[in-house]
Amino acid sequence: MFVDEVKIFVQAGKGGNGAVAFRREKFVPNGGPAGGDGGKGGSVIFEVDPGLNTLMDFRHQKHYRAQDGEPGGTNNMYGRDGEDIIVRVPPGTIVRSEQGELIADLTEPGQRAVIARGGRGGKGNSHFASSRHRAPRVAERGQAGEALWVTLELNLLADVGLVGFPNAGKSTLISVISAAKPKIADYPFTTLVPNLGVVSQYGDPFVVADVPGLIEGAHQGQGLGDTFLRHLNRTRVLLHLVDMDPQTGHDPVNDFRIIRHELEAFSPDLAARPRLIVATKMDVPGSQENLQRLQDYVAPLKVWPISSLTREGVDVLMWEVRKILDETPKPVFQKPEPVIKPVVRGFSLEPCEEGVRVVGDVEERAGMTLWGNRDAEEYFLEYLRRRGLENLLRRQQIPDGSAVMVGEGTFYWREGELVLE
After folding, report:
1. 170-175-176-179 Cα dihedral, nearest 10 degrees
2. In 3-state terms, the chain is what percent helix, strand and coil (to 5)?
3. pLDDT (tens digit, 9 = 90+) per residue, 50-90?
4. E-only strand ranges, 257-346
5. How far is residue 71's CA from residue 78's CA, in Å, rounded to a whole number?
6. Dihedral angle sign, alpha carbons of residues 39, 44, 49, 51
């Protein structure tokens, strides 16, 4: 089954907690602090695997979580870093956030991108020693890893794209010029998924993509719609195949006009690519009359007549494709703009049911506080006082006895002071 768009959840590992430990040393309170730092959480990394050509595996597994870092140990021993998780994706995978922002465009074999970064490990109590706190029982909790939903879109990597009505001869042509074995039959929509073929007998090898046929109104969802046209976004040359068989009852001029309109409606950039108009099934009686009508309509553009069945005109067409490829530079793939998270400076109060909540830059510090550790909570309380939270509470005339919440912690405003219960 061919799958070219999925939504998955990625979770980087949490950093390990810092340790509270002491070494044995004469004349040093409690032997001196010796708690080590926690290990860094593992990251979620996407890597291009050239052996993949579909996102099918992601239909069965939608959650990817990296390993947490281990907590710090005694004797200033660092915790082990969490292992990264490597997620393999096919070439041409585009990764976007829920907001549609481009995170990565993965095209080259072995190319990697960090999608979710692991949290840093918490500091052990050896970092909190000072002249006032010579034996601190304070350590940091590990930072949470990044977690987000991302959308994966597969845009196949091909040099040449085949477009046209159903049964225009696209699958037959790709089977003749490459080793691809698409389904071929005399009824519409035999091609339901894109097919890739490598063409190697005309100079340097190049890749051809055959996408399901279009019909009028495809850009509005008619037929199979234009869902698969995005697989042509990276192509350098388009071959517009038009059926010359008079027995189909189709007007080749009208067919050409409809497909051209659908391409322009989907992407003006795609429609502006170098394009060869190919008249197919020239071995069928009566095809010459249709060829002449099409040539008169598109003049002065040239029409390339071929018969994939007899191979008439195929070599000439492919050498022309080779020439255009040599003259057309390879596309420059999108590079995601670096996402710069705004630095939040300062803090403010927001009313809530229990009292007020402190929001702003103190929340990150709160997130790494070991709640439940009295020493750690008092250390954070001192930090809030130094930052001027008590002055802000007075200025805003917060009622006595109100709860003051920061992150997971709760303090109380009593008689003009911020206190722990």
Report:
1. 140
2. 25, 25, 50
3. 888 888 889 889 999 999 999 999 989 999 999 999 999 99
4. 275-280, 303-305
5. 8
6. positive
Please state the pTM of the whole predicted model: 0.76
Could you give the CA distance from residue 48 to residue 91 in angstroms, rounded to a whole number? 6
- Which amino acid does the sequence have at 37? D
Helix axes 170-177, 314-327, angle to 10 degrees: 80
**The pLDDT of residue 185:** 43
pLDDT digits (tens, 9 = 90+) for 311-347: 999 999 999 999 999 998 877 666 666 555 666 689 9
- Backbone phi and psi for residue 14, each to the nearest 5 degrees, phi listed first: -80, 145
Count how many Cα atoms sit within 13 Å of the Cα of residue 346 in the half-sphere of its side chain.
Answer: 3
DSSP E strand boundaries for 136-214? 147-154, 160-164, 195-199, 206-210
Is residue 210 very low, low, confident or very high in pLDDT (cuts 50, 70, 90)? confident
Report the candidate in 276, 293, 196 with the shortest Cα–Cα distance to residue 240. 276
Q: Rounded distance, CA 298 to CA 193, Å? A: 30
At residue 396, φ and ψ (nearest 5 deg) are: -90, 5
Dig out the tokens for 124 from the structure: 């052990």
Number of H helices, E strands in the chain: 9, 19
**201, burial (CB in 10 Å: exposed 0-12, middle 13-18, buried 19+):** exposed
d(Cα 137, Cα 133) in Å, to the nearest integer? 9
